[in-house]
């Protein structure tokens, strides 16, 4: 487990349904040269079949429905279709024209574009390396106490795993693979584009150079299936809202046995009813009686670690005064020591005095000369001057 900057390919939310990586033409079950009419009618037929209303609760159908929409959105537009024919999925990434609905960050890598344009300059001709599975995000809420002590937490997430029957190959057990006819096993196809010879990932085998004879029934040839997985997350002491924990290799399985992505745990620390937090500093407001404020004394307040903290109130303290307890704040994440606790004092004026107490206060009042409270005295002296000036 380690801490890492946020992954650029991060997909949002748990249970993220991977957009299918099938070729748009394959998705719509049409030939590459199909005309607009054929594409439109294929889209209607398939959209009807996979529509969420017809497949309630079927995440796979929903994912396919989205992918079909994305494919149609692209292929119905002559400009987008031309770009797609040249660059494949990469055409709809990183500002190369808008993606359709359901087009996740998973489609291709920016490298595909460069490969397409510059071909062999980037080692083209070799079979494309299978791309990694998607990174996932999981949001976890912890209390301030948990952020203080750290905690171990089991989470269960729905995440795509390597399909067991086919071992991730996507081929039905007992059946084999054959060399792709389209690219003769190179994983790339070349086409003349004006002055350039453009090389792009083979649309039939997606760069793998081979195709499956008969797709695995368990995973529909994808080589991975969504399965709930329980993971233990170690939340170290000192985490704050915005802290991310990376669980390497716990993201989605890669397509066709490619390495898995990572899982990022995004932490959110719940608001606390006593303490406010700013980094490693904790802040709290403590009301004290006006007699304690006047005479001083020792009070006890709860610490975030569960211990009682003794706080020495100096005589004559005012409301709003801040006291500091060194080392009584939050621990330093992956470091040593603790921040401070800042205690803001509020002096509370009594509201329910007994007759006897009132008498005592009246006695006290009778002895007042005004010098006991220099601020009040100064203030009223200034007001008196102002009144005198007016008259
Ligand atoms: Zn399988
Ligand atoms: Zn091929």
Structure description:
- The protein has helices spanning 24-27, 36-50, 59-75, 78-87, 110-118, 144-149, 290-295, 355-367, 374-390; strands spanning 136-142, 151-162, 177-179, 188-193, 196-201, 210-212, 224-235, 244-247, 263-269, 276-278, 281-289, 297-302, 308-313, 322-325, 341-348.
- It has 391 residues and is of the alpha+beta class.
- The strands form 6 sheets. A 4-stranded mixed beta sheet has the order 10-11-15-14. A 3-stranded mixed beta sheet has the order 1-9-8. The protein has a two-stranded antiparallel sheet with strand order 2-7.
- A hairpin with a 2-residue loop joins strand 4 (188-193) and strand 5 (196-201).
- Helix 2 packs antiparallel against helix 3 (59-75).
- The longest helix is centred in the first third of the chain and has 17 residues, at 59-75.
- It is elongated, with a radius of gyration of 34 Å.
- Bound molecules: zinc ion (ZN) (2 copies).
- One zinc ion is lined by residues 180, 182-183, 187, 202, 204-205, 209.
- Residues 163, 165-166, 170, 216, 218-219, 223 line the site of one zinc ion.
């Amino acid at each position: 487990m380690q801490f890492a900057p946020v992954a650029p390919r991060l997909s949002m939310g748990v249970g993220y349904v991977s957009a299918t990586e099938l070729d748009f033409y394959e998705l719509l079950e049409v030939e590459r040269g199909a005309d607009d009419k054929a594409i439109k009618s294929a889209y209607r037929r398939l959209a009807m079949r996979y529509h969420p209303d017809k497949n309630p609760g079927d995440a796979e159908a929903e994912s396919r429905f989205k992918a079909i929409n994305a494919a149609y959105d692209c292929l119905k537009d002559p400009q987008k279709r031309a770009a797609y024919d040249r660059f494949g999925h990469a055409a709809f990434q990183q500002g190369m024209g808008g993606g359709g609905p359901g087009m996740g960050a998973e489609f291709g890598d920016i490298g595909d574009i460069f490969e397409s344009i510059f071909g062999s300059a980037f080692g083209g001709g070799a079979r494309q390396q299978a791309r990694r599975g998607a990174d996932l995000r999981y949001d976890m809420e912890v209390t301030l106490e948990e952020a203080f002590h750290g905690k171990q937490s089991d989470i269960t997430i729905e995440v795509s795993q390597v399909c067991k029957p086919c071992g991730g190959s996507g081929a039905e057990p007992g059946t084999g693979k054959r060399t792709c006819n389209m690219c003769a096993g190179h994983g790339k196809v070349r086409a003349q584009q004006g002055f350039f010879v453009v090389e792009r990932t083979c649309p039939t085998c997606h760069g793998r150079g081979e195709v499956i004879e008969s797709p695995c029934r368990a995973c529909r040839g994808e080589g991975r299936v969504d399965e709930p997985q329980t993971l233990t997350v170690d939340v170290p002491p000192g985490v704050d809202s915005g802290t991310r924990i990376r669980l390497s290799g716990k993201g989605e399985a890669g397509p066709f046995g490619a390495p898995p992505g990572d899982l990022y745990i995004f932490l959110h620390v719940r608001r606390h009813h006593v303490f406010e937090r700013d980094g490693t500093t904790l802040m709290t407001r403590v009301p004290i009686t006006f007699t304690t404020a006047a005479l001083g004394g020792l009070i006890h307040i709860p610490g975030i670690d569960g211990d009682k903290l003794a706080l020495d109130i100096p005589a004559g303290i005012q409301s709003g005064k801040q006291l500091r307890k060194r080392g009584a704040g939050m621990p330093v994440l992956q470091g040593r020591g603790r921040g401070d606790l800042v205690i803001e004092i509020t002096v509370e004026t009594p509201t329910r005095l007994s007759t006897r107490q009132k008498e005592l206060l009246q006695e006290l009042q009778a002895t007042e000369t005004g010098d006991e409270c220099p601020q009040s005295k100064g203030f009223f002296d200034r007001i008196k001057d102002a009144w005198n000036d007016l008259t």
